[in-house]
Amino acid sequence: MENMATIFSTVPGITTPIMLVAFFAAIGAWAYGQKLSTQRKHIQSLPPSQREDAVLAFLTSRRVDVDMLTQQQRFQYVMEDLRKRHTTTRFTLALLFAIAGMAAFVLTVNFASGSINPPATNGSRRDNSVADGSDPRRAVIVEAPGDSRPAEVPVIPPVAAPEPAPAPPANPAPTVMLILSIQVNPGPLQGQSSRATENISLRPPPGTTRLRWEIEDGGASNIRINLTVDRTFGPDHTVLNDITNGTFSPPISGSDFYISAVQNATRPFTVRIYAE
Length: 276
Fold this sequence. Notes:
- By secondary structure, this protein is of the alpha+beta class.
- The protein has 4 helices and 10 strands; from the N terminus they run ααααββββββββββ.
- Helices cover about 35% and strands about 20% of the residues.
- The chain has a 4-stranded antiparallel sheet with strand order 3-10-5-8, with no helix packed on it.
- The longest helix is centred in the middle third of the chain and has 43 residues, at about 70-115.
- The chain folds into 2 domains: about 1-115; about 175-275, Jelly Rolls, CATH 2.60.120.
């Protein structure tokens, strides 16, 4: 509610159409952010017997393929998706405030410098009508009240509207991009209990709907791994469990990840991650 109070505190300063549009857009962004936050808290508070139904309903509305995801992976995906969308909404809200502030600043500077003048109050009037059959490029002669000398007012010919840009293809072809290839130890690194690689970063491109994991070599076909995030303060957190060759996961993004809990491997192997 503090954000809403902040938004309405700007009402007295709304002096331009841009600021008015930013004001209503800020209200919409705030309401949408509140909805996301409430939805995230609601799903977290549900008992396990009801949480899965809520998670599946959310993933279905987002058209996410859940066949390859475990119950825990689906829950983690929903929480991460709601968090990202809420963060984006907060950023949008801040941007709208910045636009409104810049508009107010520019308007204040223009008034102070005299660039914007009040509307004229004299009786002069411009006649933009053109007689039938006349050339629209010719100047129209009008007489200002109280002045016997005619004044020439240029008439600007109409400008043709630009042609619209061609529409993008209705169904663009899906793309697959390799975003990471890393060599993994068959067991924990020296001095580690579970870590099998150094830290890695995952940066899927915009529009990615899922990640595909491929595990090559390693001496076995049933190798399993986990994806864990390295935390400076506090214990490390496992993001994905039991990843096998061909596993699909949500489009996780970030840094300080590492491969952990390698199972069934007898020699070093390669993990490749594709964004789809």
